[in-house]
Amino acid sequence: MWKALGVSGLGAVAAGAGGFAYAANWPTSQIFGRTTVAGHDPREIALTYDDGPNPAATPQLLEVLARHQVRATFFLIGRYVQKQPALAREIAAAGHAIGNHTLTHPKLTFLSPARIELELSATSRLIEDTVGEAVTLFRPPHGARRPVVMQIARKLGLATVMWNCIVGDWNSVTAETILGRVERAISRNQRAGRGTNVVLHDGGQFDPRADRLATVKATELLIAKATKGKYVTPEQWV
Q1: Average of per-residue pLDDT values in the chain
Q2: Angle at the Cα of 101 (from 134 to 140), degrees rounded to 5?
Q3: At a CB cut-off of 8 Å and minimum separation 6, what does 214 contact?
Q4: What is the mean pLDDT of residues 30-37?
Q5: Percentage of the chain with pLDDT > 70?
Q6: Alpha carbon of 66 to those of 19, 115, 153: distances in Å?
Q7: Mean pLDDT over residues 189-215, rounded?
Q8: Which residues are catalytic?
Q9: What global pTM score does this model have?
Q10: What is the per-residue pLDDT across 135-179, written as a single tens digit (0 to 9) for each?
Q11: I need a labelling partner for 110 at 20 to 30 A (CA). Which of 52, 71, 176, 180 fits?
């Protein structure tokens, strides 16, 4: 087979695979459908938190955000909402935006359309039944998507939200390291004339009580330093 393809054929296959990977995984790619990344006001910063609710970190994070009067966005995993309904309601009661981060946090590029729809629809239903508010935002786990993912999200009334700042806070890193990475991304986006959509994590896809206290501390440090920032949620960019 490979001999028959020849060098040019192999190059085309490799290019096609690379193009698919870019379209499916790169956070700012619009090839597989329009996503929300960030607005055009460089002062705007959206703090978004994935993989909760997490009783080991989310309450402390909510306290920090409340003290500084910052509204954030929480992309919740459906199975964790089932385990922590009171905490999900606490997030909503504090006035934060809540988005859909699927039921079990799979890579959606590898799932059947039926399973994708189940992951999204079950999670929206769980969140809505728990907090009493409609869900309109969706973030695909790992940023992984393909056209059918986008189609199903639109069918369910969900706007797909990506990012232009991700800092690896699911790893064992210090708050200062997280802060430095976020600040560099903000500066880069400002030079490009864009707002900044920051992905942080108050939970963990494999651990419902993941240690995310470094992220909580980094959030407080960032808010204290970014005095010229204008905190928003992705809803106004959709």
Answers
A1: 92
A2: 120
A3: 169, 173, 174, 175, 178
A4: 91
A5: 91
A6: 43, 37, 31
A7: 97
A8: 50, 201
A9: 0.91
A10: 999 999 999 999 999 999 999 999 999 999 999 999 999 999 999
A11: 52
Residues, the chain: 238
List 52's β-bridge partners, or say none. Answer: 76
CB 135 within 8 A of CB 92: no
Pairing type for strands 159-160 and 137-138 reads: parallel
Structure tokens at 67: 């003290």
Per-residue tokens: 16: 């096609």
Which residues have C-beta within 8 Å of that of residue 234, sequence separation ≥ 6?
A: 36, 46, 48, 73, 97, 99, 137, 159, 161, 197
State the pairing for strand pair 230-232/73-76.
unpaired
Which domains can be identified in the chain, with CATH numbers?
A: 32-237 (3.20.20.370)
Six-digit token string for 136:
């309109």
CA distances from 225 to 58, 68, 113, 183, 235 (A): 22, 12, 44, 10, 24
